[in-house]
Write a structure and sequence with these properties.
With 549 residues, the chain is α/β, with parallel strands linked by helices. 39% of the residues lie in helices and 17% in strands. It is built from 20 helices and 15 strands. The chain is globular, with a radius of gyration of 25 Å. The chain binds coenzyme A. Coenzyme A (COA) is lined by residues 50, 124-125, 127, 157-161, 198, 200-203, 226.
Length: 549
């Protein structure tokens, strides 16, 4: 391991007025994020009535359930808490399906990381709206890529029937979740279920496809058709517990392996089961990545609030961001004096070696080539890649085209797509146009993608779209008369569309990321993600040739 002993230096003036303005704006964004997360966790119209009913039945709230399973002091990295945000609002603007009614994330059980998929029965009976299915399937894909077992805490009314066409039939819909579950199990990744509510129809297959199942007496039920369906189909009148309760399934049908009298007892047994799963711990010393003792950054991560520009048209220095994310603020830049609109270099995050690629604005040919060269270096050396995305895209214009920006950008995109080392992306500012692709946007399947609350994601900025789309519309009108007011109205309409759709809450609602995070939490989130990769067996070695660009 080589480290530089030079003291890191920063050019940030924490006493400047610009810094204070940025702090004010970014703290406000972080506060709004915290409020919206809180609402997703326990807000929503009529929710208190559902919560009271849930607790009145002796049931435990979904996040408390997870707390009872994970190790004391274990982190819980929750994904997409704001899934569905703004998609199910009532007339008063209240979200009727907060958090999409499902909680997913990663926590430790006996030091082993597991993915949790847990229904929130206080939101529409835990039934699955489109974004809940997307969240469920995404959590399974995270388990697959990171070699993690899955713990299902099942308390769900199954498909949310009014939207059944958006949940049921397609590749990544409900069927896709069962397909994944069966394949995860076959890959040797434990699939463990605790049944805490009704599992009807498709929902019955979550426990039925699990490797081991516990049912909690009095609340857990599994049936392909509930009592009303049985009555309608067969004229048989049967009580829910007799049809599919814990006693029937544990002692008669064998669908369940154990019965627990209480939730607490079930979680104790589940933890005991996890001792027998033969999975690698988070700190497995036989991992393939270079990991040393973690050191805090030399510069306070809170200073990120003062560096990220309050005005998204004003660029900010990527190196200053990196210095507040990495161990001891130690960063060795690669080709620091060439292609400077991209910053590349080596650092550590919580002891894990990482190759960082970060934007300093527009991507020019040289910057694209530098990034391509650096990706090849990381691929050759087996160093994970972290993309810090903040770009308005690749450079346009005749000079740029003549310089071959299309093929140079394509080299970067191809290198990103084909890198076999773990890749992670944080959207720290703008993610516009093909720059989003070259910087490992969602389409390039980074292992995890998190976004800051100041970020923007769209084909182009609202200002650019106003020019482009209005010009296209006017050209399409083939010289027909338009008043200034009509043009202004067109501009306003396009501006509003792009502003709304590039908002980070619009993106996170649709799972274009794995969650919005407060900038100050970025280092810890990435540290956990990197630790997951470090415990895995080494993937197939990638291409080792480094072409100098
Ligand atoms: N689709 C749409 N909404 C559903 C639903 C489903 N599959 N399951 C439950 N809900 C809604 C209810 O309409 C109710 O909505 P509200 O809060 O707006 O009034 C809320 O979830 C709570 O349901 P409720 O029946 O009052 O709660 P419960 O705790 O007594 O029972 C279930 C929960 C899940 C056992 C029960 O609702 C149920 O059996 N649902 C249908 C299950 C089913 O047949 N699914 C087929 C899936 S393919």
């Amino acid at each position: 391991m080589t480290t530089t002993t030079r003291r890191p230096t920063s050019r940030i003036d924490t006493g400047s007025p610009g810094y204070a303005d940025n702090v004010e704006a970014n703290v406000a964004l972080a506060t709004t994020l915290a409020e919206r997360l809180r609402y997703a966790i326990d807000g929503g119209p009529g929710r208190q009535r559902s919560i009271d009913r849930h607790l009145g039945r002796g049931k435990i709230m979904v996040r408390d359930r997870i707390d009872m399973v994970i190790d004391e002091g274990s982190p819980f990295l929750e994904f997409s808490t704001l899934a569905g945000y703004g998609q199910h609002d009532d007339a008063d603007g209240n979200d009727t399906v907060p958090g999409a009614g499902i909680v997913t994330g990663i926590g430790l059980v006996h030091g082993v990381p597991y993915v949790f998929i847990a229904n929130d029965a206080t939101v529409k009976g835990g039934s699955l709206v489109p974004m809940a299915i997307k969240k469920h399937v995404r959590a399974q894909d995270i388990a697959d890529e990171n070699d993690l077992g899955v713990i299902y805490l099942v308390d769900s009314g199954g498909a949310f029937l009014p939207l059944q066409d958006e949940i049921f039939p397609d590749k990544d819909h409900f069927g896709g979740s069962f397909y994944r579950q069966a394949r995860l199990s076959a890959k040797g990744l434990p699939q463990l279920s605790v049944v805490l509510g009704g599992c009807t129809a498709g929902g019955a297959y979550v426990p039925a496809l699990s490797d081991e199942v516990i049912m909690v007496e009095g609340i857990g039920r599994i049936f392909l058709g509930g009592p009303p369906i049985v009555k309608a189909a067969l004229g048989e009148i049967v009580d829910a517990d007799d049809l599919g309760g814990a006693a029937l399934h544990t002692r008669v049908s064998g669908v369940s392996d154990e019965i627990a009298a209480t939730e607490a007892e079930a979680y104790g047994r589940l933890r005991r089961w996890c001792e027998d799963t033969n999975q690698r711990r988070i700190d497995d010393p036989t991992g393939w990545l270079d990991v040393v003792e973690s050191e805090p950054p030399a510069f306070d991560p809170e200073e990120l609030y003062g560096i990220v520009s309050a005005d998204d048209r004003i660029p900010f220095d990527a190196t200053e961001i990196i210095l507040r994310l990495v161990d001891a603020s130690r960063f060795r830049a690669f080709k620091p004096e060439w292609g400077t609109s991209i910053v590349c270099g080596f650092a550590r995050i919580h002891g894990h070696q990482v190759g960082i690629i970060a934007n300093n604005g527009i991507i020019f040919s040289e910057s694209a080539l530098k990034a391509t060269h650096f990706i090849e270096l990381c691929e050759q050396r087996r160093v994970p890649l972290l993309f810090l995305q903040n770009t308005s895209g690749y450079m346009v214009g005749s000079d740029s085209e003549a310089g071959g920006i299309a093929k140079n950008g394509a080299k970067m995109v191809a290198a990103v797509a084909n890198a076999t080392v773990p890749r992670y992306t944080v959207l720290i500012g703008g993610g516009y146009g093909a720059g989003n692709y070259g910087m490992c946007g969602r389409g390039f399947q980074p292992r995890f993608l998190f976004a800051w609350p100041n970020s923007r994601l769209a084909t182009m900025s609202a200002e650019t779209a106003q020019t482009v789309l209005v010009d296209i519309r006017l050209a399409g009108m083939r010289g027909a008369e338009t008043t200034e007011e009509e043009v202004a109205a067109m501009r306003a309409e396009v501006g509003e569309q792009f502003t709304t759709q590039s908002d980070p809450y619009y993106a996170t609602s649709r799972l274009w990321d794995d969650g919005l995070i407060d900038p100050v939490d970025t280092r810890d989130v990435l540290g956990l993600c990197l630790a997951l990769a470090a415990r895995q067996p080494e993937p197939e070695p990638g291409r080792k040739i480094v072409y100098r660009m």
